[in-house]
Amino acid sequence: MLDNDTYASPLPVTGKAEIAEAALRNAIVTCVLAPGERLSEAALAEEFALGRGAVRSALAKLKASGLVSSSARSGWSVTPVSAGEIRELSAARRQLEPLICSAMLDDSDRQRLKGFAEMHIALTQRQALGTDIVPTIRRCERDILELLAGRLAMPIVHGWLSDLWDRAVRLVNFFEVSGRVRLIPANRSRLVEAIVEGRKADALEHLATANTALETYLLDRFLESEAMVGGKSARRSAGKGKSSGSQHKSATDKSRTLRG
Fold this sequence. Notes:
By secondary structure, the chain is mainly α. It folds into two domains: about 15-80 and about 225-255, Winged helix-like DNA-binding domain superfamily/Winged helix DNA-binding domain (Arc Repressor Mutant, subunit A), CATH 1.10.10; about 85-225, Four Helix Bundle (Hemerythrin (Met), subunit A) (Up-down Bundle). It is built from eleven helices and five strands; from the N terminus they run H-E-H-H-E-E-H-H-H-H-H-H-E-H-H-E. The strands form two sheets. The protein has a three-stranded antiparallel sheet. Strands 4-5 form a two-stranded antiparallel sheet. Strand 2 (about 70) and strand 3 form a beta hairpin. Helix 1 (about 15-30) packs across helix 3, helix 4 packs antiparallel against helix 7 and helix 5 (about 105-130) runs antiparallel to helix 8 (about 190-195). Residues about 1-10, about 225-230 and about 235-260 have low confidence and may be disordered.
């Protein structure tokens, strides 16, 4: 079952536009708003108790993040799942993630990282015993990555990385909820150990290995899945019986299979 607590950019929010962006981002990353789903500003404003202006601003930012798309003809929609996106994400992460190995850490940062690493190890051991705590392990992993990215003193790069991580989490969530195979979490305690001890080469090797494992998982699931993307989710279709037969046919026509 999909855990809606799965991580999505743990950045503080303040204004109405930021609150709207955080709410919609989380809904997209957790696949509450399904890949390919058409989005109505009015419907989103009502469903999430947001203002129309805030929703419009949030959608524009999410488009820049690669999570939604728009066209003059069909309006807003959640970015569909595709092999191209998987390859693009992998290539971008291979280029940007190595930068976190050069994060400027003070003693407090190192202690926090060690604490996250110890938590990661403990959670992984519990997972080995059969406890389904993968979402918690992934939140811990995201804490590690965000701390490192935050110490780059490059806010734009940090934003790019957060977007890439959110997009990757969305794909993992989609394939896990629509299939039986789950992604095995990377052992981020090794990354922490390598960075804290100044072993940059080992840290870079860890990141490369983790990214390869993620790309392999996503492409394998993409090729083998019989799921459909691009149509409306069952949750929203069931909750909105107002859709006409022609609207349903249009959404179905725009669906695409995950058969490469």
